[in-house]
Amino acid sequence: MSKNLIPTKLRSGDEVIVIAGKDIGKKGTLREIVRSKNKAIVTGINMVKKHTKPNPEMGITGGVVEQEAAISLSNLAIWNPKSKSKDKISYSTNKDGKKIHPTQKPENLLNRVIMSSSKIGDIVLDPFFGTGTTGAVAKKLSRAFIGIEQDAKYALEAEKRINKVEEIETKDLIQTPKKTAEPRIPFGHLLEQGLINPGELLQDSRSRWTAKIRADGSLISKDKKGSIHSVGADLQGLQACNGWTFWHIKRSGKLIPIDSLRHAARAVNQA
Q1: Which of 3, 20, 76, 102 has the smallest count of CB within 10 Å of its CB?
Q2: Mean pLDDT of 9-20
């Protein structure tokens, strides 16, 4: 690694908090790390206004849009929703402060994986156990685990580490509700509730692609027609796309993800 690059344990998808600068105290999801500049793009952080030129072929009318600008990695810290404070990404280290295992994964990463793919009481299997990060996190989250490790030194360190771990007692904090348990909101339902209108323009967060909303709840962008997901994927040349987070719409002069409208629609249905 170049001496000019700031070492970081942060990864795309992490929930982070700003610890310095004009947005101090704000939280968001780390969307992209720009390693060459020691910066990152965080959803809703360091918003700037940008003038865009009209492009009739792409359906861009032009004007001023608001979007995220890169923020220094040194101004960010991982956010712990349980303690409601910034946190450290920890590793097991030896007496010299060096990582015991060369490819040890941060606990925050395993926490997200285990929470999203299992429930309390499930058994988590790790056939390459190393120093036991999987076991430590599984125990903390009230999951059983099976670890397989051929190196006796790593296995011993894993045992010591896991013995020190205490389970989180408040089970509500470690039980992730399944997405399927949430009421499904089709994109067309936003039309029915008047949250969007036929003919309105959707665009990605950087105003690279646009699409118009059709009366039946589908989108059209030049020769591309289909759902919010399929059109988003086609425009980017990808196999799949989460249209709820990809597409944005202008509200009060600001671009907001249409996913926020889905949450609003769900709240109305549950009221």
Answers
A1: 3
A2: 82
pLDDT score at 232: 93
pLDDT in tens, 129-143: 988 889 988 998 889
Q: Distance from first CA to last CA of the chain, Å, rounded?
A: 53
Number of H helices, E strands in the chain: 7, 16
Residues 6+ apart with CB under 8 A from 177: none
Residue/partner pairs of 170-178 with CB below 8 Å, 24 or more apart: 171/120, 171/142, 173/82, 174/115, 174/120, 174/140, 174/141, 174/142, 175/119, 175/120, 176/115, 176/116, 176/119
Q: Could you tell me the sign of the dihedral formed by the alpha carbons of 114, 119, 121, 124, in that order? A: negative
Q: Taking Cα atoms as reference points, which of 174, 177, 172, 106 lies closest to residue 139?
A: 174
What is the total residue count of the chain? 271
Q: Kindly tell me the burial class for residue 158, based on how many C-beta atoms sit within 10 Å of its own C-beta (0-12, 13-18, 19 or more).
A: buried
Put simply, whether the predicted model's pTM sits higher than 0.85 gets the answer no
